[in-house]
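Same chain as my last thread, 200 residues:
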Amino acid sequence: MSNPATPSPSSTPSSSSGTPSSGTPVAAGPLTRAVLEIDEYVAGLGWDQPARLFALVDTVRLRSQEPGLADRLGLGDDAPGGALTPIEQEELPAGSPLDEFLGTIAWPDSVAGCALSVERLMLPPSAEASVPDGLDDRQLAKWVAEHPDRQEVRMTVAVLRDGARESALRLREKDAATDVLTGADLVPGLAEALTATFAD
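reply #2:
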């Protein structure tokens, strides 16, 4: 994997110094702001997108250590302490199971955290009782895809090296920034998989 701290300027959703974007609450912490910034960026690309992986780097540190890159990214000197800049990584390999791919990642010390945005089909809790027994993963995915109550959702999950986590969920049928749900434990399995990419 290429060094996440040296992307091209077009590969990052950040165009400010950690300043909240239009749909991001000002009072939100740095990790929540980063998750919502990524959600807004990916939402601007439309639906039916591949999974996207981001490195999260300390904005002040990036400005200090890579001033030329920070200038190209439009990062000013007024970044608040703890601000995070999301930097999109190379496209995930097609056809590779997500858990297997995440198991191959090793981040350099300059990366404070990472985030993943991925689309999935989900069922409401009321439909879970009707799931047939004995389905393997492929059969279950097919069954969910054909269920009349299925919902398309985009999950954006971010973690830091210290174990902090945050998530944002956006339903396709409620595709507006004001309807995005946030919370630390909305997608615990994916958060744990991302945290494992920082394991020694």
